[in-house]
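Pasting two entries for a bug report.
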Amino acid sequence: MNIQLNDFEGPFDLLLHLVRVAKMDIYNINIREIIDQYLEFIANIDENDIDTASEYLVMSSELIHLKSKMLVNKNNEDEENNEEDEYKIKSEEDLRNKLIEYEKYKNLTDTFKALEENRELYYTKVPENLNEYVEDNKVINGNVSIDELLQAFLDMQKRMDLKKPLTTKVARREYSVKDRIIEIRKILDEKKQIEFTELFDIITKEGIVVTFLSILDMSKNREITIKQSGVFSTIMIERV
């Protein structure tokens, strides 16, 4: 056998290897054949390995004892009870069950090793408070969050798509955020307060996007206050 003791994690690991090499069903092991293969392997251990093979030699004595019982069909319960403290493997079924149990644990160990190797591919950063990186002038004024404002914008867009008005106001030139801010200022100078949706009177994709960006920019610069009296209520914009 071209195998070494350091290839295994213990005697049960060696026994399981012999079962797999013999292509046996773990639930229907030929115990005598496996014992013979194990004892043959132990008999050929290099003398230099004896000091590191103590647990393998202990298993050898267990298997020799079991094999002797199998050869003489020993069924004397009194004698078996007397030997109970000396030997841990009591029968073929006992050895088979121990191997099955060991295989289950070994498979779990292989799974955990694979998970550990996969986990090493990731780096976990400890959570930290990012508030110190938030600029005050980027906070939306009033009691409406940026998420609520964006949702109102999307809802309004859906309503506009469904209405599909026959007449729309079309801009004669390309709008910039700077130009639209000037227009919104004039509107708020007259009305002081206006509904969020009223500012979207330019029914073009460019006009809607420019208006929304203008509102955000004015809020960032604290030119306007965005308020909402309650959940799902109308969002109002006021000049500061």
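Entry 2 (this is the one that rendered wrong in the viewer):
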Amino acid sequence: MLCGLIGESGLPAGPVRDRLSAWRDAPGFLSDALPLRLVGALHYLVLSSHDDGLARIYPPQTADEATIATAIDEAVERHGDLIGRYLDSPPQTNETGRSAVLLPAFLYLQSRFDMPLVLSELGASAGLNQNWPRFRYEYGPWTWGSLDSPVTLACEWLGETVPAHPPAKVADCAGCDIAPIPIATEDDRLRLQSYVWADQPTRLMRLAGALSMAVNHPPNVAKAKAGDWLDERLRDERAGHLHIVFHTIMWQYLSSEEQAHAQWLIESAGRRATAAAPLAWLRFEPDGQPKSAALTVTIWNGEHPNGETIALGRGDYHGRWIEWTAAS
């Protein structure tokens, strides 16, 4: 709604409007997600209690369009410098809901190999999904995790079969990101929350829970390109463990050269894998079908040089549903 209203009403004269107007004619306007940078800044002003006028028209409050437009104009005039800093960097997200798609895959693989897991996440953002064993999951026909968890993920289960769901055994978990999202300070955490829209209270609640959990269980995220990090991470054999390299909705953002490098490293490590130290490449990525992504895994355990690729199912980008197709 905000983007449409701003598009119709415009913004007040000043540095924010001048900057957006100049950017609109540049090739990167849409790919740079300028509208999302702007509304993220406005939401931050509400979350941080910097603008009472905006707070009075943001959910759960209601207001007519004229009142909303006036509040936006006044906020832009008052906070041009802060909004300008938001425009300097792309939106930052860490969708914890995707753990609801990953969990059945992790449990399926753990049950198949009966080994503790070593997890390596590419494009980890803030690393919040590294705490997936501490989340609560509710799929309808089955549940997993503690009722006391501050994060509950409700996901519609569309599969005909249910994977075995034992307790998780994670020996090591780490990730990398070319620009890890900082969450050490309250301001860092508010910035991450600002990119979840105010009319999505469920997402805001689970993100707040994941951030509170990260205080006592901080994620491990290295600042590195996927290929550079994998080159080091995949060197050592993990005897007695199943090593899973995984990523969610990030592969498309790598250059073709970086994709090829990362894939070569994973496949090379796969050819070195053995029954005592297997490797899996788990990805939840778009495949051309609308409104969902494919959940796929390739497994190496010394039997097939090219690995065994299994289509596990499909899921909603934000983890609202999963269609599980793998045999239990």
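Dev reply: Rendering is fixed now. As a check, the viewer should reflect this: The two ends are 43 Å apart (CA to CA).
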